[in-house]
Write a structure and sequence with these properties.
It is built from one helix and ten strands; from the N terminus they run E-E-E-E-E-E-E-E-E-H-E. By secondary structure, the chain is mainly β. The two termini are 25 Å apart. The strands form two sheets. The protein has a five-stranded mixed β-sheet, with helices on one face. The protein has one domain. Helices cover 10% and strands 43% of the residues.
């Protein structure tokens, strides 16, 4: 599955939300993707599309490049991504924002997933 977004919104540690790390975007098609994790939790949560309740996941792999964010989940967790085992998010995030996006992803995935950087 693939979506396109002009902006990736990231917060590596939200003081107002109990230090939650959060990455979010809205696709040009109107779909929302949200990935969050509290520092004291062993799992991360993904909310995608019209789903009201987030899916709790472990073992997520995320690859970040200057123009693409690839989210990969196990086949047993495909319901989190509307039945797909991966979500490719094509983005045009400002290059100056990539460091904060990377820090956020590292915080979300630390100890529970895999982060791969293709930033160079």
């Amino acid at each position: 599955m693939q979506i396109t977004t002009p902006l990736l919104m990231a917060n590596p540690c939200d003081d107002e939300e109990d230090n939650m790390a959060m990455l979010c975007c809205h696709s040009e098609q109107g779909e929302m993707f949200l990935m969050t994790r509290y520092p004291d939790e062993d799992e991360l949560e993904i909310t995608f599309g019209d789903v009201d309740e987030p899916s709790v996941l472990e073992g997520v792999k995320v690859t970040l490049s200057p123009t693409r964010l690839l989210i990969e989940v196990s086949a047993s967790d495909a319901d989190a991504l509307n039945g797909a085992d991966h979500l490719e998010i094509l983005h045009t995030a400002d290059p100056s924002d990539l460091a904060e996006i990377e820090e956020t992803l590292k915080n979300i995935l630390k100890g529970t997933g895999t982060y791969v950087s293709e930033l160079g």
